[in-house]
Every structure is written in structure tokens, then in C-alpha cells.
């Protein structure tokens, strides 16, 4: 329940005293100003909300220019950060890979070429590109045909050896396996859309022509890698309730439920088992479309020989551009690919362990005390990630000096901005408040976990770095409390204020999202 509280000077003093005995805000080296006392009391009142009864809350606010701590409650407590983990991954990628880094997918021939005949294998080598669309594989096939290749006597070999074969994060929950936000990670993959949800397919169900008929099921992109088991029914009337679920260990998608005659088609994003085979299937079909016949079979996971000759190549957008869909939409797959790419580029090992080591080294050099945290993946899906809010704020403060900061800052979600690729996961939050088009911050959501860390420019023009991490609550959402804190920071001023009166800001209601999911993870997106 949203509440507006008006507390007099006596109430403010009582709140601050209570917080001191509870170990809530940590005292700063200098005596707090009246404005800081007011801010402390405001945030204390927000965190006193009954939705946080029995929960854990960590909140830190620092003036990014002066380094002065304006608020600190449990700043050193290790909490599950959810997608705020992407702050570490994305900054490390920008620094260590560079804003201009691109992923390359190429096609090579190994064997003798005479006229239009390649006597040997054709190799499709993946470079980890999470933005590869079916159209990009079609363009690669067109390049192969333009090079004069018409018949390949050997196999089509899908080379995904840039990264290891561990497809899922070590701590991800089994029931997320077919959910698109937990897609398998491969150096060779396909995205079905320009959100670049690599390793997924979009399944569509349209009503059949008459009641009792099976719905018409199609996929984007069309492919032969996945199989549909259609158990759904078209009904004359009634509520549409179509479900798509991929069976464990394979690529059979079971469609159940019903859809009424005349209703609009239903769609959902489903992960693919073994994205390397998915990419090879899309590419092989494209080769056939362009008149290139491969006589052999499709082979997965073998490396391209050193003496193979490149006949086609596709380079991704630069990393600076990829940051936008990655951070705005909180794309987990991008985070994990970047983690493995960091490992590959820096140590020659495309593994989670090598990538996480690179991230740790970078953030440690950027002022983060890595001895106080644990990072288990790049995206934050693991519940074994533990990061204190104070360490997020340390990173947020230090990276402002990086030459790529402005690009990275612009890629963070922007509160209340309705443009999906500006507002991102914050586009429906804090509209019409002081935080709108002001707060740039990364959201985070798992069941019982919510976080918001980033920057707010206060009413005096000072940039405040902040982190709010909330754990172990039982209510469906505490996003409104994060928003209230962000609005209070955007409204903060040292000019002409006293601690005599306090008003907790109200926050517009956030969109309803299933418990534990980012709003952009709900397809079709609600933000």
C-alpha cells in the first residue's frame, strides 16, 4: 500500500534515534547536515514499510563527486543482487574488450576447390555473436554462393569451440530451463528477434478453422531443429489459455491448452536445446536456398582447421551498441556470452571461471573490495551471487572516470522514459516524478529479491550513486519502495532545508510482473 507520511520534528528525531540503536544508517565522518538528516529519516521511513518485515535491506547513497556518504544501511551486508550483477559484467566488458569489440562468425572451406566443387568440409565457425539472426545466416550463405561454391562433398561442420560446452550456469534452477531468460550459451547461436534473445525460438499458435481442430503452430525462425507436439485445441468460445513447454533434454515443444476461433494468435519465446545445432540447421537451409548443396551430414562441435580458407564472414555490431539491448532489457544471454568472451580474449579459455576471474580483477582495480563478494555468473540468475550494496556504489563512483562511461551510462535504463530502448526496464516506473528522465539505474529481480543501483541527479545538480538491494521479502513486489528512494534522491537538496518536516514521496504503480521476473523478461514485454 502506498502511504504518504507527514512527520514533525519530534518524529524525525525519534526515527533517527531508533535507526542508530538498530544499526541502520552508519554515521559519516562529518556531522550530518539538516538535509542529510531529512534524507536519512525519509529513507528510514520507506524501509519501515510492512512489506519488508522480516526481510533484509541494504541501501547506500554517496555523493559521486565528493565521496561523502549520505546514507548507509547494511551497506557491507552480502545480499543476493539478481541482475545488478550485470553492472560488474558490463563495466568489465567495456574496459577489457573495449567499446569497439565485435563478434565474428565466418564460413571456411577445407579441401580442394575446382570450379563450383569443394572436395572437403564446409565449416561454420561461431565467434559468440548473440545478435546473429536467420537473415545474417542467409547473407553468409549468399556470400558462399557468390564465391562460386555450388557443391560440398564433405560435411557441414558447426564449430562452436571458441567457448566450452557448458551450456547452463552452474547454479541455475532446473525449472527455468525452457524459459527464454535462461537460454543455453554457445559460441554459435541464433536470435529470433532484434531484442537479440539468442538461443530461443518464438512459437506461435493461431486458432484452427473450426472448433475441435488443432491450432496452427509456426515458429520464428522456421527451422527443422525443433519438433512440435501439438496437443492444444481450437474452441468455439472461451478464454484462450495456450502453453508452450520444451521437454527436458531435447527439442520437442509441447503445446497445450485452448484458443478460441477468431482470437489473435498467441506467441511465446522458448529456449533451444543445443543452440549450435539450431544455428547449423538455419545455415544449411539458407545454403540450399542459395543453390549450395552439402552432400555430407551436419557435424557439431569440431574445430575449423588452420589451413581452411575463409569464404564468408559476418561481424556483429560493436560492443558499445550491444550495451543498449543488454542493459536496457536486462538480457541474461548477453551477460553470459560476454563473461565467456572475456575469458577467451584475456586467457584463451572461453569458460565461466576464466571470465569471472577477469571481471573480478577489473572491478578490484576499480575500487571494489572483491574479498567481500561472490560472483557466480555474469547475469545474476544464480542465487549464490552475494554482493554488498557498498561495493556496487564503489564501482558506480569509480567508473565515472572511464573514457567509455558516457556510452555505458546512456545504456542504463532511464526512469519513466516511455521509449523501450531508452527507458528499458524502468520505462514504466517513476513517471511524472523528479526521478523521471533523471535516474539511470540497473534493475534486478528474482523471487524474494529486488534491486536498483545506479545514479540520480539531485535538485542541486549533484550526481548521487546509490544501491538498493532487498532480500527475503514475501510480498509479490517491493519495486515501489525502490522507486520512493530514487525519487527522494532526485528531490534531495542542501539549499534551504531543515529536518523539521518529512514527507515520504509516493511512486506511481509499477506494471504487474510475475514474481521474480524482470518486466522485460515477460514476453510480449510489459516494459
Automatic annotation (TrEMBL):
<feature type="signal peptide">
    <location>
        <begin position="1"/>
        <end position="22"/>
    </location>
</feature>
<keyword id="KW-0732">Signal</keyword>
<dbReference type="InterPro" id="IPR006311">
    <property type="entry name" value="TAT_signal"/>
</dbReference>
<dbReference type="InterPro" id="IPR012338">
    <property type="entry name" value="Beta-lactam/transpept-like"/>
</dbReference>
<keyword id="KW-0645">Protease</keyword>
<protein>
    <submittedName>
        <fullName>D-alanyl-D-alanine carboxypeptidase / D-alanyl-D-alanine-endopeptidase (Penicillin-binding protein 4)</fullName>
    </submittedName>
</protein>
<dbReference type="GO" id="GO:0006508">
    <property type="term" value="P:proteolysis"/>
</dbReference>
<comment type="similarity">
    <text>Belongs to the peptidase S13 family.</text>
</comment>
<keyword id="KW-0378">Hydrolase</keyword>
<dbReference type="GO" id="GO:0004185">
    <property type="term" value="F:serine-type carboxypeptidase activity"/>
</dbReference>
<dbReference type="Pfam" id="PF02113">
    <property type="entry name" value="Peptidase_S13"/>
</dbReference>
<dbReference type="GO" id="GO:0000270">
    <property type="term" value="P:peptidoglycan metabolic process"/>
</dbReference>
<dbReference type="InterPro" id="IPR000667">
    <property type="entry name" value="Peptidase_S13"/>
</dbReference>
<keyword id="KW-0121">Carboxypeptidase</keyword>
